[in-house]
Amino acid sequence: MERLHPRVRLLWALSSVVRTTVLAAVAFAVDRFLVALPQTAIAAGWLVLVLAGVGRALLAHRIWRFELQDDALFLIRGVVTRTDTSVPYVRVQHVDTTRGPIERSVGLASVVVYTAGSRGADITIPGLRPERATELRERLRDLAIESEATDAV
Amino acid sequence: MTRLHPRSAVVRVARGALQGAFFGFFAGSVGAGTAFLPALSVPLVAVFGALLGGGYALARYLRFRYELDGDTLSVESGVFARQSRQIPLGRVQNVDVEQNVVNRLLGLAVVRFETAGGSATEATLDAVDESEVDRLRNYVRRRERETAAESRVETDAARTGAGESDAGETTDDAFAGDDPGEPTGALDAASPDSEPDGDLLFEFGWRELLTYAVVSVRPAAPVLTLAGLPLGMDLVRVVLRFNADLVGVSAALRPWLFGSPEGTRLLVFAAVTLTQFLLLALAVSVALTVVEYHGFRLTRANGDLRYERGLLRRYSGNIPLEKVQTLTVRENVLMRRFGYASLAVETAGYSGGDQQSTQGVAVPLAARDEVSELARDVEPFGDLDFERPPERARRRYVARFSIAAAGLTAVAYAADSLVFETGYWWLALALFLPVVPAAHLRWRHRGFDLDDSVLATRSGFWRRTTRLVPYYRLQTVFVTRSPFQRRRDLATVGADTASSSSLLGGVARAYDLDEEVAVELREELRRRLTAHIAMRRRGESTADDADVGDDPNADEAVADDEAATGDEAMASEDPMETDDGAVADDEAATRDETATDDE
């Protein structure tokens, strides 16, 4: 089974820092304009959330795995609730590669696989080197075509 | 290209003018109040608003044209941003017709076409007259049939295996069930246009309707009742006073009733009032259900399910059987007690929104064996024998409910010791009493079964939901384990389909299986998906005939591949080709291509 690029930990950690900082900024604004909040609590909360985010990033990287099996894309993920998902190639509608701003800054890319289903209609494989992402996208597309989908609905 | 019915233009212009006038009046009043405009400006602005609203409605009516041509429904619309949209008829999942009171008086109806893609209804014709509704419905149906038959003929010719095609037809006949005498050929040849009624599968009489209205409790009813209470405040006051007299609250106390310490009397008063309220809510719920489901009829014509219902606002619609994604059987406690069940047939077409759509449409209430017969008609399956979760799952539910009870007790204790100080917090310990029975009931009603053609999952005590998913409809299969499940080596298997109700969490789930069983189930589902798709491709379908035609056969695979590769490009730049040669390509393309060409 293939694992994600180790740098994805940095990506996730950075994203959690960004998210937490936004949250802290909101809290700060509330403190400033609405209700007085203890500044130390905001700082402590920021620190705790960032540490939790980093911990989560490390764990998530250890758990995340995916594999192109002979009839389906198979992935394992989830820190708290562990989920494994099988996406039969017959059901793949289309495949994207995406690169968000933080992803670009650490030099990674994601592949998103869409199905017609509703619960797991889009499945993202994050933390791929851009070449690998492109290669994976092409491969998935070929597999989807080989499997001769019908309506795919 | 045709326009909508002129009478609908009158309705829409009137509505637009009214809205415009209302908005104008409001804006004028605000202007007069704040910007010191002369009082005369209020009616002027209102008239201006009415003209604007009416004019816009008229322009929209004039711009809106539609046409059924070959395999496509083309719709042009939009006044400022113009839109032209083409929908391949083979991709239409449902055709729904709605008539509100005004439209019924005018003999008009709103027709909606749903495809699998997109988040909204793909085409709404508001409104056309009744004969046009029939024409549209029959045309769509006939085209679907014909395209199916055409590709089937090609398939058969390519295969030169007459035996196999015979086999295919025999299964069709078997599937037809209620009307085995009707030859399959009748689908496209004989009389697809006529047959206004088809076979009656199910009908609501007054008795069934009232039974249904009573047993199907609408959660919205109490809320609605509460919201409606202020309208009858006088009556409410009379009833409250009567209740107060009944329990013997002295007249002097009445004004302070809610603050009075007359504990028991207050309790009785509250109980009586609550009962009255609930009875009223029940009446409201019954009334709503009666209005919604009056005259419910489910018929089958040409391989379509057709439903009709509604007292004031009439709904009717067609569900092609070959588009069915999931069957859901729901029974609440009352219904189970009296041997009733409800059945929902879900396609990929409904986009969510109103209740009727998200639930899928079929039989609101019928005797259980009747429901299972109907379900088997739609998707043949054998007797279901559910495998329950392992015993330790029940221990998990006990633990879980105990934690909930303990939490509530803690809250009660905290609230009592901090606020009320009655010392009766230990009453909350009674919450532990139902823990074990509740856990048992939950465990007992959960399970799954791997039938020959469907995956069946079941869950819920108060409202037991059984989902039947044909293997060839599976999309993704996922196995989840929460930390609590991991401790007991349990896992939940979910089987996603393209059915629209799964957007609201209606995925078929087999809860709390043994880890090994779960993994085995996942693998088995994948195997069966592949096998059943292959089977349908070879024309050994047990379910229906049309989808066989839907499947591009192996010989055409190359052409299909091209179509599929070109998917994204085609979807973004161009609506579907409509010549007959493109049929096979149509089928191979994804739902994204249901050809919306928005500007």
From TrEMBL, chain A:
Domain YdbS-like PH: 62-140
Keywords from the named record: Membrane, Transmembrane, Transmembrane helix
Record field: transmembrane: 40-59
Family matches, as InterPro entries: YdbS-like_PH
Highest taxon of the lineage: Archaea
Keyword NADP attached: no
Protein name per UniProt: PH domain-containing protein
Keyword Transmembrane helix attached: yes
Automatic annotation (TrEMBL), chain B:
UniProt keyword terms in alphabetical order: Membrane, Transmembrane, Transmembrane helix
InterPro entries cross-referenced by the UniProt entry: YdbS-like_PH (IPR005182)
Domain (YdbS-like PH) ranges: 61-139, 293-376, 443-524
Region (Disordered): 144-194, 537-599
Transmembrane feature ranges: 42-59, 209-231, 266-291, 397-418, 424-443
Ranges of biased composition (kind: Basic and acidic residues): 144-157, 588-599
Superkingdom: Archaea
Compositional bias segments (type: Acidic residues): 166-181, 542-587
Pfam families, per the entry: bPH_2
Stated name of the protein: PH domain-containing protein
